[in-house]
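We treat protein structure as text, and this decision shapes the records that our systems exchange. The tokens are whole numbers drawn from a learned vocabulary of local backbone shapes. One such record is reproduced below, unchanged from the form in which we store it:
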Amino acid sequence: MTTLLVIAKAPVPGRVKTRLTPPYSPGQAALLAEAALADSLAAVADAPVRRRVLILDGAPGRWLPRGFEVVAQCAGSLDVRLAAAFALCAGPAVLIGMDTPQVTPALLAPVLARDAWRECDAWFGPAVDGGFWALGFAVPKPELVRGVPMSRPDTGALQRKRLVDAGLTVRDLRVLRDVDTVEDALAVATEAPHTRFAKALARLPLSGGDAQ
């Protein structure tokens, strides 16, 4: 069965969701990050997988459910850290981040199905902003992630091209929106009102006071 990896930062004010400040304070942005992370981990916890691994920058908190291995992120750029996460796995592995709180086991189901890796070498989850929210390998190939420019409008296209150019058969998951800006946050909360993220957002006024 597949290993599910989550790469994340601990929700510490001033270190997460900095593009939400302003209008939100660093403390409020951290609360939203914690909610998004909790939603992402809950989806992984409910998914039928062999192994769940949190690749974490920072210390675990109350938001961490049982059943996860916690591995410290290595130093380096994001592509290097993603590659290092895949290097932890010997069999099929799928990695997601903490920026898509709307993720559910149903959205992950195609890559976790019995035939997910039949005539398929990689899964790719494109993001609205041009990046990607999920990436999976039947046999992890960290070298196909290392060196891809990250946090650019063409990151997703470049990553997918890297896979195809290496001769991999790639299947696509549904396009999702990452939460980076206030507009993203409002859109995702509207799409997934049942999430911890949406409920946390609804409790926060667009004001200055620091909620910590």
